[in-house]
Amino acid sequence: MSKIALMCDSSADITEQEAKELHIHVLRMPIVIKDKEYIEGVNIDDFMIIEALNNNESVKTSQPLLGDMVKMWHDLLETYDEVFYLPLTYALSGTCNIALQAAKNFDGKVTVVNSEFVCYPVIKMLLTAREMFKKGYTTAQVKEKIETEGNMLAALIPENLTTLKNGGRISPTAASLAGLLKIQPILCVDHGAIDVVAKVRTLKKAYIQGIEYVTKGVNPADYDWMIIDADNRKMSDELKVMLEEAVHQPVEQHEFKAIIMSHTGQGTIGFGRIKKIKY
Known about the structure:
Blueprint: E1 4-9, H1 16-22, E2 24-27, E3 30-33, E4 36-39, H2 46-54, E5 59-61, H3 66-76, E6 82-85, H4 95-102, E7 110-112, H5 121-134, H6 139-149, E8 152-157, H7 162-166, H8 172-180, E9 184-190, E10 193-200, H9 203-215, E11 223-229, H10 233-247, E12 251-255, H11 258-264, E13 269-275
Helix pairs in contact: 5-6, 9-10
């Protein structure tokens, strides 16, 4: 059986320690604060991101450098026969398209998955891929399975709109109006893209509707379930119980790390489901 390196970028919200334990290779992404660039997990951590957000500073992310990506592939191929790379969803980043083009120069030894996944669900898919490889699936077969059968739906509830405003994802006028009217948006991540699916008056109602949104109309046993928080574990603990009561299935609990938190803001809660791939 071929030795296959599993690879993602740091938008998958995985720490260096977790990556080592799971034998997953992570391409760390740049973060820019006040025009100074850092590399997530190298010279900036979650606490620095939280401090910057609390100081109302603009925190932005950018794509990994192509040279860093290609170098990692070359380095991995010195030890492994193939590389299986699952980057951030194509709907939120140009990294996937760049990687797909670059992989053409590696004679089929680098497989890039054009997926709809973001955050910890990327790790879930990579672990599924590993199990499929153990059963004899090729990288091409696993890529096709994930691209055709892989499905993720999530509801995101930001605690406030400050980070979305500072990042230019909503206008200052819209943020101010929402604050005055006490409007709480519920964002969805569907087919890799983010959109607003509902607006309610309180955070409590937003949490309830977020759970209803991700659980509506499906057989819970067909999915893996999770709740993810951005430095908001106390609330996550409470809501995890509610989600488990709604689906009668185990619910994994994870944290938004620097890359995703810099987009959504501190305090954000995410409810998510991932369709189980049959193999």
